[in-house]
Amino acid sequence: MAFRAPPSHLPLESDSSARFLPSIVALMVALLTFSIVGLAALHDSVGQWSGQIEGSLSIQVPPTELANRTPAEREAALQGTVDSIIEQVSTLPGIARIEELSPDTMAALLEPWLGPDEVISELPIPRIIEITPETGFNFDALESRLGVIAPEAVLDDHRIWIERIADVAFSVELALALLIVVLFGATMLSVVFATRSGLSIHHRIIELLHLIGAQDGYIASQFGRHNRRLAFFGALIGLLIALPVSALIGWLGLRAGWPVPSLVLSPTFIGLIVAIPFIVAMVAGITATRTVLRVLHRML
After folding, report:
1. How far apart are CA 4 and CA 25, in angstroms?
2. Which terminus has fewer CB within 10 Å in the chain: N or C?
3. In sequence order, what are the residues at sequence separation of 6 or more whose Cβ sits closer than 8 angstroms to the Cβ of residue 243?
4. pLDDT tens track for 40-61
5. pLDDT (tens digit, 9 = 90+) per residue, 118-130?
6. Each residue of 254-271: b (16+ CB within 10 Å) or e?
7. What burial class does residue 9 get, using C-beta atoms within 10 Å of its C-beta: 0-12 exposed, 13-18 middle, 19+ buried?
8. Distance CA 22, CA 236 (A)
9. What is the pLDDT of residues 193-224, one digit of tens each?
10. Does residue 2 form part of some domain?
11. Which residues form the domain of 70?
12. How many domains does the chain have?
């Protein structure tokens, strides 16, 4: 087996590190996996949501100076303004779709807050026109044309909301990325402490090995293989803990209506998650080997 320790002249299996190092690595890797999955899910979800918002515009046509008219007169005047906007804006380049949000749809959206349709029909509700842009769309040209057709209309391209969401998402993603670095660094730091502890415990045996001709590289390789094996099994346990919990959270999210981020299910991301124990084990082995070489160089 790749991680079976070959015969060693150092009784490293009796060290306390053989008991506590896998537990620490398991905890750190579980938290590391949660952070990586959370970072990927957040980045993918925010990207999809922002893309959906960026792909749509809306024009609000308020009933300005029409509040004193009867509902029928108000609706007729609003409908004339809406028809004029649709007719002239649809000729602009880059407009894939332009459509009015029907009064019935508006009433259905407002009914939970404002009551039945009879109440809504008496209120001066603005009309909403939805626009789907495509290649060649010019926001400034649309804004200028709209100012000529209906100065009271409001063009909403969601840029303010997108910028705010992007700022918050970037802050959270940066925090998660820093947490991943801190967790990985803490894992390697625990390997360093375990290695130094082993050197202190086996100091006399190491001196004896030097007397019979053992080189520093041989002793360092013993510690490297030992810590690599412990780190691998600890990381594997941590991964096996994190994956079911992450799957449970995802299942609860599906039941709540949240879409599954496509990035989390991509082969590249799955390969990265599966590779975590191997990466941790490899870095732990290198860290232990370098630590031993540095300490022995100072001791001898």
Report:
1. 18
2. N
3. 33, 273
4. 888 877 776 666 555 677 888 8
5. 555 666 677 888 8
6. eeeeeeebebbeeeebee
7. middle
8. 9
9. 888 887 777 677 777 766 776 677 777 888 88
10. no
11. 57-157
12. 2
Whole-model pTM? 0.66
Q: Give me 59's structure tokens.
A: 């024009």
What CATH number is associated with residue 74?
3.30.70
Q: What does the block give as tokens for 241?
A: 């803990």
Rounded to 10 degrees, what is the CA torsion of 222, 224, 229, 234?
A: 140
Give the separation between CA 15 and CA 36, rounded to whole angstroms: 32
In tens, the pLDDT along 236-271 reads: 999 999 999 988 888 887 777 677 777 778 888 889
Last residue of a domain, one of 157, 180, 201: 157
Do residues 225 and 277 share a domain? Answer: yes
Residue 3 inside a domain? The answer is: no
Pair 278, 174 in one domain: yes
